[in-house]
Amino acid sequence: MVVRVDTAALCALAEDAARATGALLLERLDQVRTDVRTKSSSTDMVSEVDRAAEVLIVEHLLGARPDDGMVGEEGTDRAGTSGVRWIVDPLDGTTNYLYGLAGFGVSIAAEVEGEVAAGVVLDVVRDEVFTAVRGEGASRDGRPIRASNATDLATALIATGFAYDSDRRARQAAVLVSVLPRVRDIRRFGAAAVDLCSVACGRVDGYYERGLAPWDLAAGGLIAAEAGAVVSDFHGAEARAGAVVAAGPGIAAALRALLLAAGADSA
Fold first, then answer.
1. DSSP assignment string, 199-217
2. Its pTM surpasses 0.70
3. Which residues contact 162 (CB under 8 A, 6 or more apart)?
4. Dist CA 28 CA 13 (whole Å)
5. Among 91, 134, 171, 185, which is disulfide-ready with 267 (CB 3.0 to 4.6 Å)?
6. Pairing of strands 230-232, 185-187
7. What whole-number distance in Å separates Cα of residue 1 and Cα of residue 81?
8. Under a CB-based contact definition with an 8 Å cutoff, are residues 94 and 74 in contact?
9. Looking at residue 102, what DSSP letter applies?
10. pLDDT tens, per residue, the chain with 267 residues
11. CA angle at residue 100 from 95 to 105, to 5 degrees?
């Protein structure tokens, strides 16, 4: 059976949830943390704020659409019956948040029958909301955005991220030794969904990372693609959570080739 759903309405609902969550994050930003734990490694942190933010999003989305499924970074895993599943990162950039640094956000995507159909990323400190509906382009605060038109990799600004595992970080650092001399510079902001939106609006010319989870990629990946960026894995195939390269079309192939030559796909 074909699921018919108003994807623009899904996007609007996600935006409402993201803005409410952003307000919660800002309200608690300067409060003393009461429960900071680690997950996959000693550097992979989660706080009581991450969990409270996910609860808020769950209540907001499922309050409006109780038959939907949902998966979230902080443990939500709910099967639905509507054909719609929400993919949620309630606090993308937890380390930045815990240190009081800018560069954290809220990421919410709506998947319809297995395909991401709408995505919202709120850059909380900038108070910018990035949105996209599949096939309808991408926007920042309601205004259309486009990816970079850069054509020369040597003058391209590239963002990346690093894993939490120390051995993998060492391999990723070795990749940078090859990549850094061949681009304008490297930026590491610390929030994958925000990085993908930076590609979408041309703040960076490209971005790559290995080891992302589905909630890191879903909304930001759609937003970047709808803004005209090429979003793929390291080999040019469909992007997957574990391996993502997003760049303006003028440098995407060259960036992938450089990363493969540097061994980034196995780092």
1. HHTTSSSEEEEES--HHHH
2. yes
3. 168, 169, 172, 173, 188
4. 23
5. 171
6. unpaired
7. 12
8. no
9. S
10. 566 899 999 999 999 999 999 999 999 888 655 555 545 444 444 577 888 899 999 999 999 999 999 999 888 899 999 999 999 999 999 889 988 999 999 999 999 999 999 999 999 999 999 999 999 999 999 999 999 999 999 999 999 999 878 888 999 999 999 999 999 999 999 999 999 999 999 999 999 999 899 999 999 999 999 999 999 999 999 998 789 999 999 999 999 999 999 999 888
11. 60
Segments making up each domain of the chain, as ranges: 7-144, 153-266
| 132 membership: H or E segment, kind and range | strand 128-133
Instruction: Tell me the one-letter amino acid at 221.
Output: G
Contacts of 66 (CB under 8 A, 6+ apart): none
In the 8-state DSSP scheme, what is residue 266? G
CA 239 to chain centroid: 12
Task: Just give the CATH number of 7-144.
Answer: 3.30.540.10
Class of domain 153-266: alpha beta
Write out the two tokens for 64: 């409006």
Nearest residue to 103 (alpha-carbon basis) of 195, 203, 204: 195
Q: Provide DSSP, 55-99.
A: HHHHHHHHHH-TT-EEEETTS-EE--SSSEEEEEEEEE-HHHHHH
Q: What is the DSSP string of 144-182?
A: E--------GGG-EEEE---SSHHHHHHHHHHHHHHGGG
Structure tokens at 135: 């096939």
Tell how strand 69-72 and strand 206-210 pair up: unpaired
